[in-house]
Amino acid sequence: xxxxxxxxxxxxxxxxxxxxxxxxxxxxxxxxxxxxxxxxxxxxxxxxxxxxxxxxxxxxxxxxxxxxxxxxxxxxxxxxxxxxxxxxxxxxxxxxxxxxxxxxxxxxxxxxxxxxxxxxxxxxxxxxxxxxxxxxxxxxxxxxxxxxxxxxxxxxxxxxxxxxxxxxxxxxxxxxxxxxxxxxxxxxxxxxxxxxxxxxxxxxxxxxxxxxxxxxxxxxxxxxxxxxxxxxxxxxxxxxxxxxxxxxxxxxxxxxxxxxxxxxxxxxxxxxxxxxxxxxxxxxxxxxxxxxxxxxxxxxxxxxxxxxxxxxxxxxxxxxxxxxxxxxxxxxxxxxxxxxxxxxxxxxxxxxxxxxxxxxxxxxxxxxxxxxxxxxxxxxx
Length: 381
What we know:
Largest sheet: 5 strands, parallel
Strand order of the largest sheet: 2-1-9-10-11
Oligomer: single chain
Helix content: 40-55%
Strand content: 15-25%
């Protein structure tokens, strides 16, 4: 009931935002791959006029009863760690809650109290301090690389390091600490699993490949790998779309790292916050809009809409595709055959004529799209 009510409120807010053409994200479609806090992110983007595609790439599974977590906890009690890395606030709280259920919470807090506590961000710090513990250091960029550099420079030879994992094992960081002489206890507080319903994620993959979304948000690095796994043999097409037409927006540098390894340009705030992610999308996405003058009218092309003389005009995918194709060469004639390539597969030249007719009706601006007899169409620019 709550999800349905929340979705209805988002729809109403988005409709209200779209009714006002100055809404900064009106006309854009944004994919949201987050699971936890997805409604919060969708609400903030929807309030600014964006159309949202919810497609969780992963879901978080607590493993409070998992034997590996219990074993890691007992290892920390038997040989209290000299250094503790707290990766996430939810992970730290989950660890203490699990220890409470086993009757080990006080012993665990005592074991951690004597350690050099490193927290990877404000939420991890808040969880540590709410447990009555005191952190000693935090990386400016909240990245694992900074943490490893700091610890190895400080010296970990002969020390025991407890590393609270962030959803999955971090073998490269464990190996780096062990190479520096540390004994590492990996603490697996929660893990990632595929979404309960994979259909929305597969739909998002198709939309990215077809360039029918303008941006995709990522709030965890594993979500990137999950998206590409869902793409399967179409992963290269998805990567090429993200390199060119679809903006990849990440909550922070850590999340952005896997995309950058694929040479994908990424927008990401310096500090990993949802509010900062929304701000950078608001700043960057409108910069991609195409602006031109045609037949005395001012046109701004956004994802699935055009702003004509300040009025937002929502367009179906085929008319929008034709408009984008014409806007790449304003004033020049485009043949029906060339415009056909911009339409979905299986279309014919009659479909081009229909798309042009719908485009003219949708724009409501006579003379913008001109027919050149026996040659094709052009924007009167």
